Amino acid sequence: MKILISGAGIAGPALAYWLEKAGFEPTVVELAQAPRPGGQTVDIRGIAREVVERMGVMEAVKERRMHERGLAYVRADGRRSAALPAEILDGGGPVAEIEILRGDLSEILLDATSQKIEYLYGDSITKLVQDDDGVQVTFHSGSERRFDLVVGADGVHSRVRSLAFGNEAEFVEHLGGYGSFFTVKTPEPLDGWMKIYSAPGGRWVGMRPDHDPQYAKALLSFRSPLLPRLKPAEQKALLAKTFAGAGWHAAHAIDAMEGADDFYFDSTSRVVVPEWSRGRIVLLGDAGYCGSPMAGHGTALSLVGAYVLAGELTRYDGDHARAFPAYQREMQPYVDQRTELPPGGLKMAMPMTATGIRLRDASTRLMTSRPFRPLLAKLAGQPDAIALKPYPAITQARTTQG
Ligand SMILES: Cc1cc2nc3c(=O)[nH]c(=O)nc-3n(C[C@H](O)[C@H](O)[C@H](O)COP(=O)(O)OP(=O)(O)OC[C@H]3O[C@@H](n4cnc5c(N)ncnc54)[C@H](O)[C@@H]3O)c2cc1C
To answer: Which part of the chain is the FAD-binding domain (predicted)?
Structure first.
C-alpha cells in the first residue's frame, strides 16, 4: 500500500519509520526545501520513551540529549525570582527526564528513515480527491499521484486538515499568544538553566541552553489576540516593536534575530478535531491534536501516535475503515490527558502587570517549597493514560531486520 504523509517534522518521519518496517510504502512530502532545523528543547516523557526504545534510536537520542537543570524566572537585572528545578518534579515538570533539541530529534528520525523512504522536499499537497480505491493527490509542483491513504502530519496549520476536514478556525483555538524561537550567541552563561524574564505587558524573554555553551536558544513570547497570518519579515518587525525596551536580554535577542537561520514563529494554539479521519485521510500529531507548548507534550503525543497508527494499520491488514477509528480509540484518553492546559494558562504564566509577575513568582516559590513538593511531584508525575500494545508486525520486523 502506498501511503502519503504530509509533513517531515516529528510525527511524519516517525510514522514513515514504522510503516516501512511493516511493509507499507510511505512517501513524505515536506513544504520546506530541506529538513527544518530549529526549535528549543522538547521532551521525551513517559510512554514516549518506550516508543523511542522500540524504534531503536534511544542511543542516538541519549548521545544528543540536553542536561537541563530546570526553569528559573529572573528579574530584569538577572537575579532569580523563582525556580522550578527538574529534580523536584521528578522529570514531570517543564524540564523532563529526556530533553533533546527539537531539531536534533527531527534529524535523528530523518536519519533513521531517509535511506529507505522517499522524501519530497519543497512541495505540498494542493488537492485531495478520494474514491473507493484510493486518493488522487495534486501537488503544488504540478505533479499528480495516486495513493491508498494520506496522513496529515503537517502541524498546527495542517494543509491536509484544511483540504479534507474544514477550515482551520473550526479546529484551532487561539490561546492568546505568540512565540518565537531562534539561536543566538549566549548573552550570559546559563549553567544548564532555562531562564525566563517576564516583562510587564505579558511578554517573555527566554534563554535556553544549546549544546555549545557559547550559544543559547532564545525565546520571545507575548500575549496577543489572533492576528492575520504574517510573513517572516512582518513577524520580525512585530517582535522588534513588541520587545523594544522590554529589558534583560530582549535587545540582544532582537539584534540576533535577523541573522538567525532557524527563526520560528507561531501562535500559541490548541488543536481539537473530533474525528481524526475522513475516509482514507487521517491526521497525526499537532495536525490532529495539540495542547500547545503550554501543555507541553506535543513530541510525546506525536511519537506515540505514529506508533499506534502504524500498529493499528498492521493489526487490520491495511483496512483503514477499521484501523483509523481504532487508532483514535486507543489514543483519545492519552490525548485528552496530555493536551490539558496548566491552570490559569497564559494569563497565569505571562502576567500583564508587575504585581501579577510578583504574585506568579510568589506562588511558584510556595509550590516548590518543601511542604508542597510531594503534591507537586504527584500532580506532575501522573502516569500516561495509554498502554502500548505490542503490534508484532512492526516490533518483530525490527528484531528480524536488526
Ligand atoms: C521549526 C519548528 C520548531 C519548533 N520548535 C518547538 C519548540 O521549541 N517547542 C515546542 O514545544 N514545539 C516546537 N515545535 C512544534 C513541535 O515540533 C510539535 O508540537 C510536536 O513535536 C509535534 O510534531 P508534528 O510533527 O506534529 O508537527 P511539527 O513539528 O510542527 O512538524 C510539521 C511539519 O510539517 C511541515 N508542513 C507544514 N505545512 C506543510 C504543508 N502544507 N505541506 C507539507 N509539509 C508541511 C512543517 O514544515 C513541519 O516540518 C516546533 C515546530 C517546528 C516546525
So the answer is: 2-316
